[in-house]
Amino acid sequence: MTKIISLTSILDDIYDAYGSCEELEIFTKAIHKWDINCIDQLPDYMKLWYSKTLKVYKDMEDLMSKEGKPYRVQYAIEAAKWFHGNYISTKEEYMPIALLSCGYLQLAIASFVGMEDGITKETFNWAANEPKIIRASNIICRLMSDIAGHKVEQERGHVSSAVECYMKQYGVSMQEAYDELNKQINEAWKDINEEFLKPTAAPTSALIRILNLAKVIDLLYKGEDAYTQVGDSAKTSITALLIDSIPI
């Protein structure tokens, strides 16, 4: 899971800051094909990411095959192709593509691969159909990231943002856009809570995994972009979780 998150973070930078339109078109096609033979078509700085990504998923597949669960990795690969292959979008289609390209569905499905606790093929089918709890988590991930990174991204000419789209569509100020998008984030949290209060096709262990990923997003993007620029609040939380002892 750590490797997948790291590779996804690097990919985000490739699309946002480094790749030209021509390079990204070739890159996206290579991801859709998911074939190491495509690597020669890529610029050198993309080759390392492509080879490492395919190897990570191949290693996962080998491990799951030994446990009789190779189908799990196929779901993870399809989610990765779906996510990585849809970065290029028009402003008019921003939110549908943006919810997909935030990567939450990919990470949620990948997180199920090594789990026990009643995770079955039906669980992966359930997640792939983007149930309410995953869509709500997607909204939290996308909107909190867009709000936290908005000012910096506009300075570097990064146009695709829920904030910019809302401001232009409704003719409102930046703060008014922030306020409205935060309302949508709060509604998404209510949707997550609702999913825990009624029967679902997925086991509770899967719901908790989805919830925990959303909580990480909340920690990193509440009031600041602590993922891109790690500040004191994130450092304090990580230290408390992984280093400081718990009094008994």
Automatic annotation (TrEMBL):
Keywords: Metal-binding. InterPro entries: Isoprenoid_synthase_dom_sf, Terpene_cyclase-like_1_C, Terpene_synthase-like, Terpene_synthase_metal-bd. One of its GO terms (biological process) is terpenoid biosynthetic process. One of its GO terms (molecular function) is magnesium ion binding. Signal peptide: none annotated. Residues 1-191 form the Terpene synthase metal-binding domain. Pfam families: Terpene_synth_C. It comes from the Eukaryota. Gene3D superfamilies: Farnesyl Diphosphate Synthase (1.10.600.10). This is Terpene synthase metal-binding domain-containing protein. It comes from Gossypium davidsonii. The lineage of its organism: Eukaryota, Viridiplantae, Streptophyta, Embryophyta, Tracheophyta.
